[in-house]
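Hello Y.,

Per our agreement to keep a running log of every chain we model this quarter, I'm adding this entry. I've kept the format consistent with earlier entries: sequence first, then predicted structure.
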Amino acid sequence: MAEASLFDLPTDVLLDILHRLPPSTRRRLRLVCKPWRDGIDERTQERQVRTKILVFVTPNNSGGGSRALVFDGEDGRRRHSWAYLCSDKNRIRMVGTCNGLLCLHESRWPGGDPSTITVTNPITRETAVLPPAPAPPESEQFGKYSFGYHPTTGQYKVVHIPWREGRAAHAAALVFTLGGASWRRVSALAAPGASYDRWCDAISVDGWTYWATASPDRRVMALDLNDERITAFDAPPAARLSTKARWRLTNVHARLGLVVMTETTLEVWMMEERGEQPRWSHIVDVRRWWQWHMAPQLTFGRDMLSSSYDVIHLPDDSMRGVWRVYRQEVGGLMDGKGKNGQLRPVKGKELITEEDGFNGVLTTFAYVETLEPLPRIYG
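Predicted structure for the entry above:
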């Protein structure tokens, strides 16, 4: 008699087995065959969960704690508000989010104790604290962190780009795999001109971590989270042709995006294909009616996320500041009609949230609520 396999099991039995597996494992098993993909998509909860907008609020004043605010992508209602307190003289920033897990960085004043990296699922309240990265003390202020997930291996990784005073170039990145015990050094020497722009944050998208170089030719460094190989490639022409324009790496529809900022416009580019020299697509030019675009998550559906800082004059002649975060549909953002043209927003801004009297940093992320378990940290 021929041996039975999982492919021969009745659908209900197979789905019962799949329900007992972690969500990240089910996501990888979708790649096995069409019946498994259809069964997981139609009969398990994580594929039916809608993406929400997460706004992370980091006060400039140390010791004040931070908040993660989650808003429904359909009706705009606030669904969650989580507070993250820290000790005096420290600040908590959000590094990134993958499959419902949040990665937080509690930075400390130079000369103090090493900073703390925490990964948590706020729904299950599981939390894991990583060992300190073996980076130089000056990295506390200018070193970059990123949090990524590789869809094939199912591994979560935290990447640290160290910084040394007086040295724009760097020889390696530091990588920690959740479920492991220590940080690993990944050499960047094979990528010519390896460096990073300390004013441009690193970002992880679709199994890769990216950061911008500090070199005049403006290139992008890329770390493959599967084989942990670092390469470099050219940024879009708009970022390389103007040394006065500022640029920023973002997430555009779950792909690497790059925003080129001038005094009057934002140029949004998206990486279409990976390779030795990836192909960039010019998505849209937007006139800068608002003062700031949001990052690292720039888009949500057909909308662009933006913010403004408004000064309100009170009856007693005093003033207070208000940060507001908006979403606004921009024509051509998805279909490429904005190429070589100036596009105006096609509808009014929709307010997501506002922070009264707030002085600090607001960042945006795409968040999916899951029961994803945390891999155990050894060591």
